[in-house]
Design goal:
This protein is 42% helix and 11% strand. With 314 residues, it is α/β, with parallel strands linked by helices. The protein has 2 domains: 38 residues, no CATH class; 268 residues, Divalent-metal-dependent TIM barrel enzymes (TIM Barrel, Alpha-Beta Barrel). The structure holds 3-hydroxypyruvic acid (3PY). Its EC number is 5.3.1.22.
Length: 314
């Protein structure tokens, strides 16, 4: 990236020039300038209370080049990020480039989503098998042992039961390979409002699939946003599915912005999550409300502070 561009982006984020610059048009567009933002936790407090969360840099900081979003997340106080397709060359991504930037900034990568082919389709069996190798190699480069599976679009001519059967069969095939690599692939159920045309929505059938595969390497990515939109009843459902949960993500509903912007009582939920024994990161997979990243980070930190959320343990 050329220097002028870097300085422009960095200033937007308060990396260069920090909050001392006067508020300007870009701050209004992409509000991260602390001077413009009342009721914002200080950087030190944010950094402390954000330590449980992993910033989804696919949904945050969308106007800026991909790798620089890692700097942006750090500048807001995050110590971890999650990503989607690490091979998207057009976006300036490659597993090695992402890993290097994360290492340079001492940022951890907690999950990646390498764009699984639709493996409920028996015609995709070979593609899926080749893809699994690529996904595993990406994880090694990124230094992260869990990745997210989607690949559950409806297929014309197949019943839901048939699609689930094919999907489960491929996971049973993948499980021993993943176990030998000490990696975990997570099934992520979506919700029918934001993702039309899938066959895995909400708690069931994702939970049954994982129970049937019965492997420490095939677990759930439990995204409270999708769960709320599909099933509601968040605490009871979490308790029932918790034995299969590997990774957690959140967003408020229905807007998919930060907690506090919608209908979900996240204070209770995060408290129960830690009581149940979840010790990992929580993916902040949402769009900062009004594109105000600083406010979103501060709101998230306030939430953690309000319930004294203890940081992940490793
Ligand atoms: O694409 C989505 O909605 C996701 O939740 C991916 O993790």
């Amino acid at each position: 990236m050329d220097r002028r561009k870097f300085i422009r982006h960095s200033s937007l984020l308060g990396i260069v020039g920090t909050g001392l610059a006067a508020c300007n048009v870009t701050d209004e567009l992409f509000q991260t300038n602390e001077k413009c933002a009342p009721n914002i936790l200080s950087f030190a407090e944010r950094r402390h209370w954000l330590s449980s969360f992993s910033c989804n840099i696919e949904q945050w900081f969308r106007p800026i080049p991909f790798l620089d979003r890692i700097n942006a997340a750090k500048a807001l106080g995050f110590s971890a990020i999650e990503i989607w397709n690490p091979h998207q060359v057009k976006q300036g991504k490659s597993p090695n480039a992402i890993a290097q930037r994360a290492i340079d900034l001492n940022m951890r990568i907690t999950s990646y989503s390498p764009g699984a082919p639709n493996f409920a389709d028996p015609n995709n069996e070979k593609v899926f098998k080749r893809w699994l190798d690529v996904a595993i190699e990406a994880g090694k480069a990124l230094n992260v042992s869990n990745f997210n599976l989607t690949g559950h679009k409806k297929i014309d001519g197949l019943t839901t039961q048939e699609m689930i059967k094919n999907y489960t069969r491929m996971l049973k095939w993948a499980a021993p390979r993943l176990e030998s690599e000490n990696m975990v692939a997570t099934v992520e159920p979506y919700n029918p409002w934001n993702h039309k045309g899938h066959f895995i929505y909400g708690k069931e059938p994702a939970l049954s699939i994982c129970r049937e595969v019965n492997s420490k390497s095939i677990k759930l990515n439990w995204d409270f946003f999708h769960m709320q939109r599909t099933n509601g009843n968040l605490i009871t459902n979490l308790e029932e599915g918790f034995d299969q949960v590997e990774y957690i993500q959140l967003a408020d509903a229905p807007g998919r912005n930060q907690p506090g912007s919608g209908e979900v009582a996240y204070g209770h939920i995060l408290t129960r999550l830690r009581e149940l024994g979840y010790q990992g990161f929580i993916g902040a997979e949402f769009f900062p409300k009004d594109k105000n990243a600083l406010k979103a980070a501060s709101d998230l930190a306030y939430l953690a502070k309000s319930v004294s959320l203890h940081p992940p343990r490793f």
